[in-house]
Amino acid sequence: MTTHPLADIATWAETPGPSGIPSVCSAHPIVLEACMRAVLPTPLPLLIEATCNQVNQDGGYTGMTPQDFRDQVFGIANRTGFPHERLILGGDHLGPNPWKALPPDAAMQKAETMIAAYARAGFTKLHLDCSMGCAGEPVALGDHQTAARAARLAAAAEAVLPGVLPSALPSAPVPPPVYIIGTEVPVPGGAMEALDTLEITSPAAARTTVDIHRAAFAQAGLTAVFNRVIGLVVQPGVEFGNHNVIDYTPTAARALSAARAKLPGMVFEAHSTDYQTPAALTALVRDGFAILKVGPGLTFALREALYGLDLIAEELHPGVRPISLRATLEQVLLDHPAHWQSYYEGTPEEQRLLRHFSLSDRIRYVWPDPRADAAVTTLLEMLGADAIPEPLISQYLGQLSARVRAGHLATDANTLLQASIETALAPYIAATQ
């Protein structure tokens, strides 16, 4: 049996080499390409995860099934020269969440179909999250019911193994998946309100989650499968809202960090680590939070760079386009209020600013829209491979100006766009090595 590259992640900190891994939670092809380029010169594998709302058997908000997402990732790897064997595909928050308006049995049947599709398509890091209630149930379920449903999903995944990847060979089949259990508070994707403090997961709660899941797996005849549970999602005290970020405070999470010693073979997985400082990310990995999830922070960097290039295009080619990229995105956002309206409070003017600049980056949900995609293509084709004058880079892409000035970056639009995303990922790579 092929060993999963993350199977021994709990021991990485004790051996030479990486001590953790970033988890790239994005389906945007430009983001994925930039992340491949950033990780390529390192010893790290590249872990790319799709969420249940983003990618599922019904298409999710990206319109992609797990197989579609897999094929997109491997296609980008082919273009960028990223080795297939260094790719790990994961599924995040896999459970009934997309169908929680349905009765529990119907929602769980959909969730079983989804996780089977993920496993069949070669996704080998699967986060089991059945913590949310469905129709007629409490908003959040108790530990025992959550764990029983998680075991049910693990059984559905195991039933369709082995998965299939384009790069899989008979001599090196796709390894059985590793699993992540637990969930964080507040809900995934960034908080809606301004934040001051967070409730850190207690050591007792962490141990209870593991113990109850272990028992639920055993009751379902999955004792051996539970040995492939490598991580537990906890809240170490990191989060971001629309306007602000709560940074990791090691002293506040000391008891939780120490609790990992009583969970052999497991690491902690930290969600919503977007926008954390380099020092905070390094401290998280040092303290046992070895898997660092990042998504909106990367698409925020994408949006920031595209808007800078949008303004540069107007300086260089004024009036050539009938509508700017930003104006196009505003139209698309207004046509799809479900993606942002319940998350962005305030006056119409405040909502307008949040639609484009919130740290929650809910604009990421509309990049797949054909109008948005066409506007990005038009922008990049207009700027082409031409060198952008350094004063315009300083004015509109200031975060890259020093590297351009030092001669470390070419000044064409695509290079600058990729560099913006790579810069956002760089602290995660540094923290895990």
UniProtKB/TrEMBL annotation:
Q: Name one GO biological process term.
A: phosphoenolpyruvate-dependent sugar phosphotransferase system
Read off the InterPro entries from this record: Aldolase_TIM (IPR013785), GatZ/KbaZ-like (IPR012062), GatZ_KbaZ_carbometab (IPR050303)
Question: Which pathway does UniProt place it in?
Answer: Carbohydrate metabolism
Its Gene Ontology cellular component terms are: plasma membrane
Q: Gene3D superfamilies this protein is in?
A: Aldolase class I, putative tagatose 6-phosphate kinase domain like
Q: Which organism is it from?
A: Celeribacter baekdonensis
Q: What protein am I looking at?
A: Tagatose-bisphosphate aldolase noncatalytic subunit
Superkingdom of this protein's organism: Bacteria
